Amino acid sequence: MSDQKILIVDYDAKSLESMVELFSSYKLEIITAADGQEAYEKFKSEGPNLIVLEAMLPKLHGFDLTQKISKETRGSVPVIIVTGLYKGAQYKNEAIRSFGAAEYFEKPFDKEKLAKTVLSLLHDEMDIQEDLPDPEAVLKLLSDEDESKDS
Fold first, then answer.
1. Reported pTM
2. 10-residue block means of pLDDT along the chain (151 residues)?
């Protein structure tokens, strides 16, 4: 799993640091950002496999960022929202249904549960990618098929 990359976004330096610490024991490349705009730029340039972010972010709100990433990737890059501000089922439901979040945690959160969720989502993504055929092989098969029909 060493080629897996996660982006962690939080405006609070201590929260960001503890999140990095939580995932540093796993073989993951960790990228960080302190605001929504920086996170979006790093998402575009670094291509993380998963994003963990605080909902309340300066410059670009976490819900808006989640929606933007979810739309652009058609949900293929899971976004997990971890927030201390938006508490309650209505926020969780809105984040998942309306904005495309893969999961939603309220601070303080169960670190083990968050880690398991991240690893599970990364593993699911790897399984999907392994199941997809190589585009070049598919094109070759199709062109071979066309050639055999012509003869």
1. 0.81
2. 85 95 92 98 97 96 97 95 93 95 95 95 65 64 68 56
